[in-house]
Specification:
The protein is 11% helix and 43% strand. It is mainly beta and 360 residues long. The strands form 3 sheets. Strands 7-6-5-4-3-2-13-12-11-10-9 form an 11-stranded antiparallel beta sheet, covered by helices on one side. It has a 6-stranded antiparallel beta sheet with strand order 14-15-19-18-17-16, with helices on one face. The N and C termini lie far apart (133 Å).
């Protein structure tokens, strides 16, 4: 026997009609029922293009030679007084033979005076290092060139660091443009102050470009024009407190043939007060400082001692002290140029002598 069909109650029918009318009318109880099934869509972040070039010294390619030039110009205020200045460096590098030359010129205001022109030069070639510090009339030459980063050599030349004046963004919003510069394929990035972040500078406004070599990922060109405030800069780079900064950097002559020639010995000795002191026949100068001269001679130390006692006396030096042994000697002289110390020891063998002359 069939069961009777269950009829919906009048209350259920009324609730169904009320819900349908509410949905059609766009009404809601509590949360909007029409939006419960909507899929949330997040706004995509703007595109960012990474920028991480290497210095040309550490390029990811085999670079045999190059010339790099940096020019920094500024016009601003330092301690409430107007200042203007320039800083320019030229770096030349060859791998075969390994050699490096750095020329430095600057016109930078003194802390409490007018701007002064300073020039300096460094040459590293043939396992020798030649340095003429800014505005020093004489060269320094050492036999064994020190190893280390290029920044170490710049420090030996008393150069201010370039990092505060060449900030690079880590990423930029504009897609780079492929350009060929000096025969090298590059990606040309442009940026503004919003993309720059520096521990030394606060950018009020800025515009710049960077050309990065696609093969090797090194910085080939860089320009920047900005209004900045300097915050906690290195002491040797504190040229202004606030002002306008213009920077240009370029790498040229990549893998082209050119030679780096060291200064001649006559050039190195020019102006050195020890240059006219006597030297044994066939002596080789191994180190030159403003008040020190080192050489090796193909004679025994005792022979070198006899040579200097006679030759210096003939030049008018007066011997005031002498300590002489079989393989070494220490001689002290006085003369118009001051007190001269001569230290004589064996060099590479007992058949050769090393002579170190110091003027005080």
């Amino acid at each position: 026997m069939s069961q009777p069909k269950t009829q919906p109650s009048k209350l259920a029918i009324r609730l169904f009609i009320l819900l349908a009318v509410s949905l059609l009318a766009g009404c809601s109880w509590g949360p909007d029922l029409l939006t419960l099934f909507d899929s949330p869509t997040a706004t995509p972040p703007p595109l960012q293009f990474m920028l991480s070039p290497r210095p040309v010294d550490r390029a990811q390619t085999d670079i045999q030679s190059y010339r790099a030039r940096l020019v920094v110009e500024f016009d601003g205020v330092l301690k409430d007084r107007p200042v203007t200045g320039t800083l320019e460096t030229l770096t030349e590098v060859t791998r075969i033979p390994p050699a490096r030359r750095l020329v430095f010129t600057s016109t930078i205001p003194a802390p409490d005076g007018p701007a002064a022109v300073r020039t300096g030069e460094l040459v590293q070639v043939d396992q020798r290092l030649y340095i003429r510090k800014p505005n020093q009339p004489v060269w320094t030459m050492v036999q064994t060139a020190p190893t280390g980063s290029p920044r170490l050599l710049e420090t030996m030349l008393d150069l201010p660091p370039a990092e505060p004046f060449t900030p690079l963004p880590e990423k930029v919003p504009a897609r780079p443009v492929v350009e060929r510069v000096d025969g090298i394929e590059t990606q040309h990035y442009t940026f503004t102050a919003a993309a720059l972040n520096s521990p030394f500078l606060v950018f009020e406004d800025a515009g710049g470009s960077a050309w990065v070599a696609m093969h090797g990922n090194f910085l080939l060109r860089y320009v920047l024009s900005a209004t900045v405030q300097m915050t906690a800069p290195p002491p040797q780079a504190h040229f202004f407190d606030r002002g306008r900064l213009n920077v240009q950097y370029s790498v040229d002559d990549v893998n082209r043939d050119f030679a780096i020639v060291p200064p001649t010995l006559d050039t190195v000795l020019a102006g050195n007060p020890l240059a006219d002191l006597p030297r044994p026949p066939e002596a080789t100068i191994t180190a030159v400082y403003p008040a020190l001269l080192e050489l090796t001679a193909a004679v025994r130390p005792i022979s070198a001692t006899l040579f200097y006692r006679e030759a210096l006396t003939q030049q008018g030096w007066e011997e005031t002290e002498a300590e002489i042994f079989a393989k070494k000697a220490r001689l002290i002289y006085t003369g118009p140029a001051g007190e001269l110390s001569v230290l004589i020891t064996p060099a590479d063998t007992e058949e050769t002598a090393r002579v170190v002359m110091t003027l005080q």
